[in-house]
Give the backbone structure.
Amino acid sequence: MEGMRLLPMAGEAPAERSDAARNREALLAAAAELIALGCVEHVTMDAVAQRAGVGKGTVFRRFESREGLMAALLDRSESAWQGRILSGPPPLGPGAPPRERLHAFGHSRLEVTLLHADLIRAAGHAGARAYAAVSFTAMHVRYLLGELGVHGDLGYLATALLAPLEVPILEQQVHLEHRSLEQLRTGWDDLVSRVVGC
Amino acid sequence: MEGMRLLPMAGEAPAERSDAARNREALLAAAAELIALGCVEHVTMDAVAQRAGVGKGTVFRRFESREGLMAALLDRSESAWQGRILSGPPPLGPGAPPRERLHAFGHSRLEVTLLHADLIRAAGHAGARAYAAVSFTAMHVRYLLGELGVHGDLGYLATALLAPLEVPILEQQVHLEHRSLEQLRTGWDDLVSRVVGC
DNA sequence: AAGAAAAGCGGACCACGGTCCGTTTGGCTC
DNA sequence: GAGCCAAACGGACCGTGGTCCGCTTTTCTT
């Protein structure tokens, strides 16, 4: 049994070396600190590398790009939020009727998106990361629409419902058209009502 | 009548010097050429300046930024398109019933957005430019919704309807979810039906 | 424990967007 | 036409994201 590889498990994750893992944590921490004591724009790759006490190349090897670093940062709160949906208390989590869950979902997504707007924008379309997030929300909305007995192309309807919750649209509505959070919530509720049917 | 300013007309546009105007045209032409014989990403500010035979500083003085240059490029086809809506033949232009116009609007917007996706992405949120475009489409959809007798926050509904026609969402649907143009058109029609009411 | 291969590391280097400031030029007035 | 000045010009310069490659460290094997 000597030649047996313990972790790699077929051809999946080749496992990370200890120094690499240590640096990954140090870099994420450094980036988070830099955000905390300034804006996201101040998070420059050189600054992160210097603060973490590593070379610049290391940052890129760990996170591919600046967008990748931002996406990794985002990933933490995003997973927590997904957890609240999959197994948290109602009406966000399971247990409430689908209609209520859909309304709660929109309100929550609205808030979390506005809260992390800068980070999300800086993360851009970082590889499969962004798609994973989009895909989770789309799948959930699709599921709720199904529960509600909606007919039609549920995949398209889910995407269409989610589109007004994306950063550019929300920023436009808040900053250019001066809509309040309350108005956005009402708008979502109205939109949901129209889409699922009277 | 000697001291009278002919063009400035109050405090509006201070008029452009002849060499400035010449350079603006040369730069736009150079940029268009560079796009034509390569992708949008190859349009670098140095390259545009060199091809137009001017200094780099001139490019930035005329267009503020790379995004500004892209927005200026986009502005041409965008105005033509707006013209087709305001005074072109039905069902896109006036003359057709509002419902048909709304469907035609979505289909047309879909195509033009996908066609110029790269340019639109490169233009980003270039100052008031982007908002002007967004604002035109929003106003038009809002107007059509009004004609259709829809009740509620028409401004919000217009934005929500338009959101799935924005570049990031369309690219996601086309490239990640492999939806055809036909499916997108059908999706738009269905969405419109649900929003304006059965 | 020793040795070797692979994974990681670091920082010099490059390209591009954007700024600055000394110089030139177009378009006035006289 | 001469002269003036605001506007426009050009290109050296800077910061940042991203790459590359020779050196170091970890980890696995025997």
